């Protein structure tokens, strides 16, 4: 006869197995949700996705015409992407009510890089500049940041896999196609990724109310900048990994900036200083 300890041990193992199964099912659902509705909408985002070879079906509003529509049809033909003319209501549904400009493009799922892939990709640069987004939730902020990142020469972006917005149709639209040009790595653990960046020779900077005036920021060498969540800012765990905190002086009554605005200001500070050196 089995004793009580053996029964308790079996119960613990069963519970651990059930917990693992629940976590796996949750992760599968999160991945499925993040990859559903794979569409780009609007002219610029659709053009960039077609040129990147990610289009699989082009939906055009049935009464659409003009040079922009002709360009889309030409690109679709070059990429062997079928074109379908549909009513505006169909495009409204596909874009979830977004401003689609009479254009919606079905695309293949976005292929994120691993951190190792990203580091290899930027290794040829003398002083790579990476952006780390700590649990950013607003797709418009994310898209705006990607647009500025492309314009200001950011080498790549790192985002967490969970509790963070990924590459969605709204992000693609807001980035005006920049999503096709800025390398994006998605990682399971930001703290571990930051440790890996440090081992690779990167200096890690964060943003906080108390820190070094960003105008005194030393931007030489490989650097990575953390932009915190829109409401909570940087997580406490990541603050422990930062080499130096930066602050943006403000004199108004509101003592914080929109995440996209703050990120844009800091990205262009790096661009400005490196252009002058």
Tell me what the structure shows.
By secondary structure, this protein is of the alpha/beta class. The protein folds into two domains: 39-107, Ribosomal protein L30/S12 (60s Ribosomal Protein L30, Chain: A, 2-Layer Sandwich); 115-276, SPOUT methyltransferase, trefoil knot domain (Alpha/beta knot, 3-Layer(aba) Sandwich). It is built from ten helices and ten strands. A six-stranded parallel sheet has the order 7-6-5-9-8-10, sandwiched between helices. A four-stranded mixed sheet has the order 1-4-2-3. Helix 3 links the parallel strand 2 and strand 3 (83-86). The longest helix has 32 residues, at 4-35. Mean pLDDT is 84; it is low at 24-36. Residues 1-36 are annotated as: Disordered.
CATH class of the largest domain: Alpha Beta
Report how far apart the termini are.
79 Å
Poorly predicted parts: 24-36
Shape: elongated
Strand content: 15-25%
- Number of E-type strands: 10
CATH superfamily of the largest domain: SPOUT methyltransferase, trefoil knot domain
What is the average of the pLDDT values?
84
Please summarize the sheet with the most strands: 6 strands, parallel
Count of distinct structural domains: 2
- How many DSSP helices? 10
Q: Which topology of the largest domain does CATH recognise?
A: Alpha/beta knot
Biased composition (Basic and acidic residues): 1-29
GO molecular function, one term: RNA methyltransferase activity
Protein name: 23S rRNA (Guanosine(2251)-2'-O)-methyltransferase RlmB
Pfam families: SpoU_methylase, SpoU_sub_bind
């Amino acid at each position: 006869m089995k004793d009580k300890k053996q029964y308790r041990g079996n119960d613990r193992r069963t519970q651990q197995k059930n917990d693992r199964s629940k976590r796996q099912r949750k992760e599968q659902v999160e991945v499925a949700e993040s990859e559903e509705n794979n569409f780009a909408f609007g002219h610029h985002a659709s053009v960039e996705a077609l040129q990147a070879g990610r289009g699989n079906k082009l939906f055009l509003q049935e009464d659409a015409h003009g040079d922009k529509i002709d360009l889309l049809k030409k690109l679709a033909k070059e990429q062997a992407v079928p074109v379908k003319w549909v009513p505006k209501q169909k495009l409204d549904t596909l874009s979830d009510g977004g401003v689609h400009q009479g254009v919606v493009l079905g695309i293949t799922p976005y292929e994120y890089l691993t951190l190792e892939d990203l580091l290899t990709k930027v290794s040829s640069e003398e002083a790579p500049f990476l952006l780390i987004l700590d649990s950013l939730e607003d797709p418009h902020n994310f898209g705006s940041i990607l647009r500025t990142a492309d314009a200001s020469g950011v080498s790549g972006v790192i985002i967490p896999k969970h509790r963070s917005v990924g590459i969605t149709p709204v992000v693609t639209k807001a980035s005006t196609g920049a999503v096709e040009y800025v390398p994006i790595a998605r990682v399971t653990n930001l703290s571990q990724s930051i440790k890996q960046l440090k081992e690779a020779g990167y200096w890690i900077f964060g943003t906080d109310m108390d820190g070094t005036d960003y105008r005194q920021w030393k931007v030489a060498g490989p650097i990575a900048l953390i932009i915190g969540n829109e409401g909570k800012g940087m997580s406490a765990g990541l603050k422990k990994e930062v080499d130096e905190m930066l602050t943006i002086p403000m004199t108004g009554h509101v003592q914080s900036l929109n995440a996209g605005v703050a990120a844009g200001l800091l990205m262009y500070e790096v661009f400005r200083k490196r252009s002058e050196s």
